[in-house]
Amino acid sequence: MSTFTDPTAAAQEHCEAMANQAPDLAEQYQSIASLLQRKLYHQLTVAVLEFVSAPDRTLRTTPDGTSSYLALYDRVVLSVDKRLNQLTLARIASAVADATAPADGDAARAVLVDLLAAKRDRLGPSAALYVESKLALLGLGLLRRGAPSVDGPKHLAATKELFNIAVVHSAHYECAMVYRKAVGPPEAYYREAVQYLHYTPLDALPADEQLALATDLSMAALTGDGVYNFGEVVQHPLLRCLVGTAHAWLVELMEASAAGDVAAFKAVSTKHAAEIAAQPALTGRAQMVQEKITLLAMVHMIFERPSSERTLRFADIARRIEMAEDQVELVVMRALSLGLIRGSMDQVDGTVEVTWVMPRVLDAAQLSDLAGRFGEWAVKVSQTKEYMSEQAFVA
Length: 395
Prior knowledge:
Structural class: mainly alpha
């Protein structure tokens, strides 16, 4: 006579024990046990992920003194891990590790290290990349808390393949962003942070993280070498969280810079001189920031002109960028060398002919202006067509 042993019996017993120990969580534990017993594995992963994503409400200590999340993961999740969606399994493991890290960094790392070591092949490339990203991010967090040594984010340089799963992109770029914030340079941080925002819903970030990210991203945009197109950041809803805070001046500074408005930039800099002086990132790269606003002012001046009027006099440029005319040649040469514009310069006549200007994100007013130019171009094309038809008929 054969005997059948339910492999999930111990997991269900654990849920019942925790429900008795924590009456306020009894409903959640009973639901998890019920889903496990009925083999509703998709619903189980959703319920567990939601449960371990709220440590402020659901994290407890078991009778033997361990984290209730670790116990749930070891005794419940791993008992049926083969039947679960592997990316969701990776997300559950990451949430458990994050909640465990403040109390026991080694145990937190062990959750992710063991998952990769034992189940990498089953996880697949997307889930494995997610776990690697979270493991590296956890290591950076432990370093900030004073850990003597952890493995760095080695996967960042080696990983080139991308996966069409937003949560994986988000984890990858979050790790890269945090790493670049720690080691620099600001332009590298800016690139990773922008990518992170592309794949991360803003409402998924707590208010304090939104504020910190908006501040850091603005600083990186202003001081990053080679960052001249940050219109997408200015228009992103994230920047609005700075309004009404002690860093509200950053919004004004970013808007003035993105618009190439030298007068507005100087006005904001004068008005908030004390706040700016308190930011080492800005004071340490003050010359670069000044050069950036000057170049952007010229770029915007060129864009505002019709393509048929792209020969600019040095005197006009000097007025727009608020510099002496004898300094304009150096500014034009700098813009040409950086690839912000293409064209040729005539030092004798004091003019520059621009044939191309860098693409960038446009605001509503600029898009409206561009639409008007397309309309004018369409009219000219139609008139030329009619003229050619008339000439052909006469001939």
